[in-house]
């Protein structure tokens, strides 16, 4: 009888293998999008959005599987750093 830890490791290995295959498929799709983009902007945008969603889903699966949180890219304008008044260094 297989131990629980062994079954968990095999399940994780199967998920990682599946994600790797999916990444290869996405790379192939991206190559095809490059060809389609010259013919139809709407189709290319739709495909690109679908790939973005799939990639996001795969990222969440990887984070869940490994326990490692990947940094998210945040877009926008950075704000001026906030420093409390009593923490400032005053220079003459």
Automatic annotation (TrEMBL):
Descriptive protein name: Uncharacterized protein
